[in-house]
């Protein structure tokens, strides 16, 4: 209901208000800056003559100027071997278990893949006498210090199942 009422007031006497606005005198433009008048003066022949006239005093001063330039010695830019082929890293085939299709097939020496890391951590956890840090370092081409820190700081999760009688007690 309010929309109809406001529309009535908006359209009231619309044509006469529009004619009144159209019939108003247009505002005069702002005065031009004095530099715009220079363009008009450039067309006069006296100004053109002054522009193209040679000044002897300036010519003699210009002849006294002597510029001697030398190119700097050319330096060969060393790209640092950016575009040269880099040394190929030695890669080794991964030792994959049943998750072989999920992992990469080749890794650089000194690195292991995620699946291999999980496998070696699990093997070390299940059989620490067989899978020692030295054997893991030799098997996966790793440094002994890195293997020791890997075995110290990363522990795989264990799944524990409770017997049925304990579930009832809980």
UniProtKB/TrEMBL annotation:
InterPro entries: NDUFAF4 (IPR009622). Coiled coil: none annotated. One of its GO terms (cellular component) is mitochondrion. Residues 16-46 are annotated as: Disordered. It comes from the Eukaryota. Residues 36-46 have a biased composition (Basic and acidic residues). GO terms for biological process: mitochondrial respiratory chain complex I assembly. Binds calmodulin. Interacts with NDUFAF3. Belongs to the NDUFAF4 family. This is NADH dehydrogenase [ubiquinone] 1 alpha subcomplex assembly factor 4. The lineage of its organism: Eukaryota, Metazoa, Chordata, Craniata, Vertebrata.
């Amino acid at each position: 209901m309010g929309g109809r009422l406001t529309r009535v007031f908006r359209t009231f006497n619309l044509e006469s208000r529009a004619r009144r606005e159209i019939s108003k005198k247009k505002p005069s433009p702002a005065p031009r800056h004095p530099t715009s008048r220079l363009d008009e003066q450039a067309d006069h022949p006296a100004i053109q003559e002054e522009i193209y006239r040679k000044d002897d005093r300036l010519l003699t001063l210009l002849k006294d100027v002597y510029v001697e330039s030398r190119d700097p010695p050319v330096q060969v830019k060393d790209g640092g071997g950016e575009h040269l082929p880099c040394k190929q890293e030695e890669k080794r085939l991964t030792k994959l278990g049943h998750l072989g299709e999920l992992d990469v097939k080749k890794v650089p020496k000194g690195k292991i893949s995620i699946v291999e890391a999980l496998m070696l951590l699990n093997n070390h956890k299940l059989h620490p006498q067989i899978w020692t840090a030295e054997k893991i370092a030799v098997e996966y081409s790793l440094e002994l210090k890195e293997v020791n820190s890997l075995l110290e700081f990363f522990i795989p999760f264990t799944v524990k199942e409770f017997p049925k009688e304990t579930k009832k007690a809980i």
